[in-house]
User: Fold these one by one.
Assistant:
Number 1:
Amino acid sequence: MTRLVLVLGDQLSEDLSALKAADRDGDIVVMAEVMTEAEYVEHHPKKIALIFAAMRKFAARMRDDGWDVRYSELDDTENAGSIPGELLRRAEETGAEEVLVTRPGEWRLIAALEDMPLRLRMLGDDRFIASLEEFEDWAKGRKALRMEYFYREMRRKTGFLMDGDKPEGGQWNFDHDNRKPAPDEVDFGGPMQFTPDETVEAVLDLVEARFGDSFGTLRPFHFATDQGQARRALAHFIKHALPKFGDLQDAMLRDNRFLYHALISPYLNIGLLSPMEVCEAAEAAYRDGHAPINAVEGFIRQIIGWREYVRGIYFHEGPDYPRRNGLNHQRKLPWLYWGGETHMLCLSKAVEQTRDEAYAHHIQRLMITGNFALLAGVNPAEVHDWYLRVYVDAFEWVEAPNTVGMSQFADGGVIASKPYVSSGAYINRMSDYCKSCHYSVTKKTGEGACPFNLLYWDFLTRHRERFENNPRMAQMYRTWDRMDEDRRKTVLKEADAFLDRLSAGEVV
Ligand code: FAD
Ligand code: DLZ
Ligand code: SF4
């Protein structure tokens, strides 16, 4: 019996469970560029280009390896326009009755496949280190699902940075050595860039014609689009940037978009790199004396800790997770997130780089765009939609827990034990943005006061009932309570006026 083997645009790995379970001689691989996937949110054009180009190259490689691949390009006249539609069309064409698929990374697509009138065999995605069953076992009976404890399990499971049953260097986490402020100079020239080949150019033309009006700059396009290139990008990062990754992980510079970050998340998320190979390379750099423990532990924690943990949370919490609104925030996403003018330099720089690169690093996402949306009380569904659209690495299983949970505290504290909010002081410490901003970061009220300073106290006051008994926030409330009453009134009045101007669409 012939079966169809579905390979989605973020499943471009030779060792995908559906391919491992398939028969190269009898089964047929189905890959399709479809409008439903390209349109379910209005993705950044670079993201669509990366996925289509990588899909085309992967299909070519599979054919070279002897697979019968039925590939549909977006403009093919027969293209049914959706993944289930394409599977049904191929089933009719080939007489296949069963579809093998590796579990997709989004509830929406899982439901669409399950609704199809074809027999479906859905296999676990074993490209992750923890299976969903293992995550459930870990979560069972715990009051709080904290990443740090899950991470230790993953260290034990993989053996990364272990010295017998103890953590290498005597500690599980070296973060107190990280978090250094922005440096004056960066001696890493940025992630490896690739000149588009013929396949990539054809995709860029297609994306320009069909999605050129969406938010985001398509060209220049330098992402890796196959496994070989992605591996070179990884090796480049390990050699030139990993040693300083830890120290400067949280720093931000107005004229340097990448600092010592890897920019490998898109490659990991679409399957061009595996988490194991990435961590093996990082650990080898530590064992060879090339990179220090704080850098390597910090990096490995992001991958076997955070990345695995957020996926576990997404599937553990269920399909309603992305729509949660635990703080009942209702403001519309301000226009400045789409490139509208703003005098806040940190925000304008983060948005500008997002538009150009489809990339911003973690602290820009969390403490600039995320922090501002949370302080301003923006509806988390709109924030979620924005992050899913604009970043090249955004797939719901990883984006939603980071945005809705970690950044917007809209899941009521499943992921974060307190909201990630800060005044301008944090941004000033970690970046050089404030030096050239229209606002003064040291000014707390009055003309030219940094909006983060006003909104920070306004947020804490609005949500006092929810947070004042949180031991990690008690100090903040004590500081607020010690302030002179007139001053507190001025802060709240100015915050209100600022939010009114923001909602009215004025340039703030
Ligand atoms: P590096 O800083 O070099 O880190 C190395 C790797 O660790 C990354 O490639 C990534 O695979 C992994 N990693 C690091 N932090 C996380 C994390 N919190 N969750 C999952 N993996 C992590 N990451 C995504 O892959 N897709 C998203 O859609 C996404 N949305 C985010 C939204 C918000 C609001 C926030 C705060 C974070 C989000 N992240 C997301 C996590 C993180 O910002 C990116 O993984 C990281 O910026 C990718 O860049 P990099 O490869 O240079 O990472
Ligand atoms: C993101 C994306 C896009 C833009 N286009 C396609 C596509 O045309 N065909 C495809 O198979 N996959 C695409 N993807 C990735 C899917 O949206 C992704 O598999 C789901 O969101 C689950 O993570
Ligand atoms: Fe951002 Fe405030 Fe600094 Fe301006 S002063 S860059 S608004 S934190």
Number 2:
Amino acid sequence: MSLLNKRDKFATNLGVLAATLGSAVGLGNIWKFPYFTGQYGGAAFIIIYLICVVLAGVPVMVSEFIVGRRANSNPVGAFKKLAPGTAWYAIGYSGIAASFLIMLFYTSVAGWVYSYIFRALSGTFINASPEMTIGVFGKLITSNYEPIIWQIIVLIVVSSIIIAGVQKGIERMTKTLMPLLFVLLLLCDIRALTLPGAQMGVEFLFKPDFTKITREVIIIALGLAFFKLSVGMGTMVTYGSYFDKNQNLPGTAVKVALSDILVSMMAGLAIFPAVFAFGFEPDAGPGLLFITIPMVFSKMPLGNILLTIFFLLTAIAATTAMMSLLEVPVAYLVEEKGYSRTKATLTSAATIAILGSTASLSANAGSLLGSIKIFGKTFFDLYDYISSNILMPVGGLFTVIFIVWVLGKANLAAELSNDGQLNNKGVINLFYLIVKYMTPLLIIIIFLNSIGVLKF
Ligand code: PHE
């Protein structure tokens, strides 16, 4: 019993929200959502994405909260406790594997972001020509040591927050950083939207174009909902285990999903109006973040300050997301293997640093590691592909199957209503209907598509 009492927890409702939103909001909002939206039909894509969030993202999040809070344990321990003597705990191991894989490339990109804060601050991009801006990024990713050093710095920052604990580390940091992120993003929005010619960017982002909604786009929207809400890999089981018994689980998930969408839209509104106002072409992924944005912002009055702010807020978003990624193996090592929190964090971080250098060094196509292709993908892309397109959908699928068929409706109702304290029968019935039928169907479609069995 004393072990249970010793478990660290989030202390306040605001802390729960800040930490969970901190996990959801990340690089996904800043380089995936805006680009996909602009590219795949604006408001038309947003509508499909919202449907995916409602039918897959939020239900899986609530399911993970249920598993975590009910078992009061890390993902492996949670399934062992709730279904002793079965193999359901494999979901937990799959989550740990996914969190490592995501961390390998995520820390690499976060390292570039950190380095760009200092580059912007020191005036690298003031009056820089497009060639120079392209050169800066090229030089960074072709260096054999600089990206690795930044990646290690990122891991040191995230580790020191994780070592401080759930309440004193994660909760305290996210409570301060999430509002700051919001204010900084708002500043960027105001600047971008008041530029002459901003209108075209707003149109690029929102103008509904239903002709672009193909079956493939629906799959992309589904995949994005998974990655965006950090579901299907144990993060929300782990965070859910730090919630107290009065926390409204469906309410929290809905608030997080809505705020996450708001941040995604705000990111799009900070980026595209400025891109179009200065006559640039929107680019995807790393190019948009590390080349187009510095080019665009350096052309604005006070652009250098804004650029620094932009990379600072991106770093905040990435850092709070990484805290939740690292917490998954740490909680496992502490509870299942008896490690101290410090030892668990340092072991995980060191593993990520060593393996993560393969992601950092393969980002440059001309390098030795960059030229190695497995299934036609570099290490960097492979880590992204296996985690987002295989482990997360499968993890999410088995989690909803678990809560419907193993936990059962009565237990779900007890968790969702906090043992009858909340009067939410309608929510419970709707949730049950969705997780029993709709979520599994959607996830199976994503999965079959990603392994190429179904080709849309
Ligand atoms: N949701 C984060 C983002 O959008 C990524 C993430 C995935 C974080 C899985 C934790 C777990 O960037």
Number 3:
Amino acid sequence: MLDLLIRNATLPDGRTSMALAVRDGKIVDVKEGLDAPAHETVDATGYLLSPHFVDPHFHMDATLSYGLPRVNESGTLLEGIALWGELKPTLKADALIARALTYCDWAVAKGLLAIRSHVDTSDASLLAVDALLDVKKQVAPYIDLQLVAFPQDGALRSKGCVENLKRALDKGVEVVGGIPHFERTMAEGAASVKLLCEIAAERGLLVDMHCDESDDPLSRHIETLAFEAQRLGLQGRVNGSHCTSMHSMDNYYVSKLLPLIAESGVSVVANPLINITLQGRHDSYPKRRGMTRVPELMAAGVNVAFGHDCVMDPWYSLGSGDMLEVAHMGLHVAQMTSQKGMRQCFDAVTVNAARVMHLKGYGLEVGCDASFVLLQARDPVEAIRLRANRLKVWKTGRLIAQTPPVLAQLSLPGRPSVCSFMSQAASPSAGL
Ligand code: FE2
């Protein structure tokens, strides 16, 4: 007897009329037209069943703090960092935990069940670290929360920052972060990359650095990061976040850089919502888009994912934990409008992001965790177009969130009474 059988689902790879069988929290069979006795059977009515969404880049210590103590007037990264510096001394653990838990509720409702969050380790008190370790424990039954030790004030620029980062790792933070473009000089930035990668190698940890979050085409710390990943045998274990300077780099240099990144096994996370708003602020017109070269990186064989980065904090005033909104923005900024490109943007917030986080048991194959989301859309492109409703969200076979189907009631002469916001072709029945 199965615990759960989901029938008549469409999968992201295009297979239709698929059934997924679940027992003890795992997928035990995936087959077209499968029918078997189960404690619960769900008819997906042709809608898209996807592995849950994954956010590979977030800042949960700052989330939902918008307006505390004031808002970012210039909209720049640097004012955001300064504003966070004003907020930090006033942070209280209980309030930070409450905000993070609220965000995690939003995330679950949106089918977002794995988040890599940077946590600021600059401050000797490590208040945010202790708070997010507490949150990690509290949300563990439903969200994989992976923490990155992030020396926001600059590992070398700020006194005691490296020691504080190491203390955060000792407490159980599992990924080594960095911010080389915020160090005092390019040389110090490169030195920080080397030092932090060595710390990760010694401790057997993953690396995820904010890297070249700048419009400066000469900010080339991604080159050092790729070099260090190879030198230290960290291939496949290192991620460069943002890499926005690549947007402005000379094409000849990029033609050399892309194969170096691919060779080193370094993955890249772009943060479309944040990159399009924070970058280009010093430009008049034309204003640069400021997102890294996503399709070119993908074509070079680099694993590229999209992150949300910020929701209602010193850097970004909007957001709701919706990774389809992230994919939607990424698709536009990168002009990935072909069918292939749009599907790659869906992958960037699901399978590619899971690869960045080294998630185990992720996917829709037999043996994977039964952690998935049923979307009110028939394929990944429609899901992005509609930022589709999350009809049902399961974590290891347990239903943890559901939202009624979206249908607008119309009162227009000579028109249908219901508008389903689906494509022009016939839509699946809304029988869920
Ligand atoms: Fe970030």
Number 4:
Amino acid sequence: MPRAKIAALGYYVPENVVTNDDLAQRMDTSDAWIQERSGIKMRRYFTPGKDTVANMGANAARMALERAGMDASEIEFIVFATLNPDYMFPGSGVLLQRELGLNAQAIPALDIRTQCTGFIYGLSIADQFIKTGMYKNVLVVGSEIHSSGLDFSDEGRDVTVLFGDGAGAAILQATEEEGRGILSTHLHADGEHAERLAVLKPSGHEPRHITHEMIDDRGIYPVMNGRYVFKFAVEKFPAVIMEALKTNGMEPSDLDLVVPHQANLRISEAVRHVLQLPEEKVFNNIQKYGNTTAASIPIALNEAWEKGLVKDGDLICLAAFGSGFTWGSALIRW
Ligand code: ACO
């Protein structure tokens, strides 16, 4: 049975750098508070008129294609993860397909909405299609523009300071090489907590999808019970990494690198302590980009790979937790 390997990675971050001090000019916050609670020093914000969710994803995909030495026409299937698509419908997957000039080939584009776990769900979907032999080359993209939907008043400061914009992509390819590629993926969700981290309006079940009141009442902005999310995240991250290791008969000490979804540096640190891993085995770059949701793992994995921290034969674990709640892991022999 073929296995899926990550043939190449790419990423794109918008050029506009926004520091904590920049945010402190717009709301009651401080560089010290943000760094102490989250580790974040800066993030990127998109440029309206230039960046879109789909074209940021396409830029990331082009980098991956170039690194893989592939032409876009070799892609057979697109899996696109975002929580903030360009349009309510259609999803951004078809827009990315068009950006890459693949519409004439009419290849399928699947949009998925599992927020911070989007990239892991995407990898798992691609893995299944490759294992069954249906496709040989699948493009998985996570792309997010958060900044257009954040509340820059003092009321929104707990959420707003955490998030940034960006995109990441991976090309998954079929391989017959024994013991190489994605060894397993584990996906989970618990809808009980759906409203603890959410954007509730506009809403399909309201009498009118969007109203002036929704805007005036700030109902269109993300809501988050930060402490509640934190508590679950520090429990589920290690659990789903251990699930991956146990399935493959391995221990935390076998890992060469963990690349967690970049939610909060304190969450990553807590996970590292539970798994008793040394500092250099858990990769973090939230300091530079904030939380970019579905894009955070591919952006971080790109950076780790560029730094030479992801080498052939290494055992890499990707893990995520986020809104839904959803969580998951992917164990990869590079
Ligand atoms: N700047 C300054 N002060 C702030 C800010 C801010 N940006 N935000 C909140 N505060 C204040 C609060 O009002 C509160 O003030 P009070 O004590 O006078 O009431 C004080 O700081 C402490 O607030 P807490 O919410 O208790 O702070 P906490 O230590 O829990 O940190 C945080 C908040 C960073 C949100 C933390 O709970 C957290 O990281 N939770 C996880 C959130 C997360 O990771 N979400 C995303 C993951 S899922 C996904 O990626 C979709």
